[in-house]
Structures are given as C-alpha cells and as structure tokens.
Amino acid sequence: MPDQRPTLVFLLMEDWFFASHFWARGLAAKAAGWRVVLITRENQSRAEIEASGIEFIAADLDRKRLNPFKELAFSLWLARQYQRLKPDVVHHIALKPIIFGGIAARLARVPAVVNAPIGLGFVFSSQKLLAKLLKPLVSLGLRATMSPQHGIAIFENPDDLNAMVEGRMVARERTALIRGAGVDMTRFAPMTEAEGRPRILLAARLIREKGIPDFVEAARLLKGQAEFWLAGAPDLSNPNPITEAELRGWEAQGLIKWLGPVKDMAGLLREIHIFTLPSTYREGLPKALLEAMSAARPAVATDIPGCREAVVDHETGFLVPPHNPQALAAALARLIASPSLRARLGANGRARVAAHFSDEIVCQKTLAIYDGLKEIRR
C-alpha cells in the first residue's frame, strides 16, 4: 500500500550539520505525521539518523567544488530524486543547496520550497579575492531561486533578512524569521560553576572567520589569569581553515588547550566558566552560543549579525568589535574577576533562550510553515 503521509525532504551539505542543527525539526515533523527524507553528503551521522526513522539518501555534495558543469549535473540528479520522491515540501539549507536545489525543484515541479540561508558566511563577509569573485554569481543564483512561486525563505536573524530583501534576492512577503536551530534546554541546564581557575571556551568549526586568531591573542594578553579551551576540528574543506600545526604551536606556547571535536557539549559546558565566540563574519545564529547561554554561562561575542541576536550587551554577556583582541580580552577580564557578574549574566542568558530560542519554539514555528505550504498546495 502506498505511503499516504506527506513527504518532507531536507537538502543540506553535511550529515553532521543536520544532526546538530535540524534533527529536532526532522523528528518533530516525523512525529506530526510527515515522511521525512534527508539528502546530504554521507560523513559521520548516517547510522544514527536512519535509526531515528528518517530516510537517508547520500549525495555528491562538495562545499569547495566550483565546477559549474558538475553542479549542473548534480542538479539534474537531484531533480530525478525529487521526481521519484514526490515531496510536498523541500527544505534547502545553506546557499549552495538553495541555488542548485532550487534548479532541481523547478525542473521536478516540486510544489513548495523552504529556503534557509542560515547565515551569509564566507561569500558575503570575506574580503578574499575568491569571495569577491563568487559574490555576484551567488547573488544572481539566489535572485533566481530564493523566491519560488510557492515558497518561503526562513532567516535566523533580522540583519540577514533585511540584507537579502534590500539586495533584491528575496521578496519581503516571502520571508519568515525563526531564530536559530533551537536548544534542548533540559540537556543544556544550569550547573554550579566548577572550582579552580576560570576556564574560557570557544567551540566552533576551526576556521579563521570564527575569530580563533583573536581568541589566541586574547589568551596571550590574559596569560596566567584563566585557561583558554578550544573545541572543534580543522575544517579543511573551508577556504580558510586553522591548521593542526597552528593549534599545536599555540598549545606549545601555553596559550590554549585544544580539545579536538567534542560530542558531549553539555558535559563540557559544566566544566567551564565563560563562553566566547569572536566571529568576524556574518553568523546565522550560532547554536553553540545559545547552548552556552542555556547552560547559564555568560558569553562574550562580537557585535555582528547573528551574535548580537543572541547576546544582549551587558545583560546576558558582552559584545565587542570584531578583529579586536584587546577589547575581547578586556571583556573576558571583567568576567574572570567577578563570579557574581558571571552568575547574573548567565541567569539572564538562560531566560533569554527560554523566551526565544528553545527547541519547542523553533520546531513549532517551522512545522507551522510546512503545514501552511502543504495547505496552499491543496
């Protein structure tokens, strides 16, 4: 007997990113009666995702690939997948899936499309020559695919929403604002601070745009006052990675402790006192930052799109200018010196996550969009 459930297909670049940022929404859709299919590059999370009842289709996706003929071939392959799956809604996540998924959705006559830029990242923030060359091409692609006839673009912060509307890449009436990927507030719960010298954590993909060189320089300026922990793995598929040699060099100087990739982020947050994310490019809404706030850890972040949507300056933490390790060190020093300030800002951060960024809020808002698009089709 054919499956009578409506079909929802996610398209994104990496299976681990679905596991960390969209799995809760996929499971919520499944619980609400949808058949859920994930199309992505198989990396490290396929077995767990399939075990949860979400179908998995491995795809030839590559963030570094720039060959237009190979990308067109991928779009044609994807169109065939869409024709076979007959989705009611497809959800394209990040810029490349939006563009090439948009082409496939049009070819396959998919009835409804959700596009989620999740931050404008390297192409729209970097001053590198590659970013400058790609920006007009990516902008053209987004203008052609971001606003299908029956579709909506979900943004994680108002800065990116307004930038894309003003850049004529999407019509304002076809946008929605859903702040972040959601946080499991039961898992990321407040804990009493660990004893000992304050520990400051930066957890992120290890690329330069996450502000890691500024984090290291702040550690140099505050050497002896706190421990600086760095969690994550070098992202060698990114145009601007931090190398393992650099990490080992900073460790040898006694500036940082490199933890590598950490799966139990909730457990790690119990061990630290302060969280920081000194990004220098446009974030969507950083999940690690929200998880730290949910765990009642005060945050120091840069005053950029995404980060300033999470952190309220002097209320849940501090915002500092990007590319300014001196300002970063000064803000961290205030928190190092005052356990009572850390406690007050941490409690405020937890309350802000509960009000705006919980899994429950994000899943409800996303499911409402899926259901609305499904009804339009009918």
How would you describe this structure to a colleague?
This protein has 378 residues and is α/β, with parallel strands linked by helices. It has 2 domains: 7-182 and 358-377, Glycogen Phosphorylase B (Rossmann fold); 199-356, Glycogen Phosphorylase B (Rossmann fold, 3-Layer(aba) Sandwich). Helices cover 46% and strands 16% of the residues. It has 16 helices and 13 strands. The protein has helices spanning 15-21, 23-31, 46-51, 68-85, 95-108, 121-125, 129-145, 158-166, 212-221, 244-252, 265-271, 287-294, 307-310, 325-337, 339-356, 359-377; strands spanning 7-14, 35-41, 55-58, 89-93, 113-116, 151-155, 175-177, 199-203, 227-231, 257-260, 274-277, 299-302, 317-320. The protein has a 7-stranded parallel beta sheet, sandwiched between helices. α12 links the parallel β11 (274-277) and β12. α4 (68-85) packs across α5 (95-108) and α9 packs across α14 (325-337).
Provide the descriptors you would attach to this structure in a database record.
378 residues; alpha/beta; Rossmann fold; 7-stranded parallel β-sheet; 46% helix
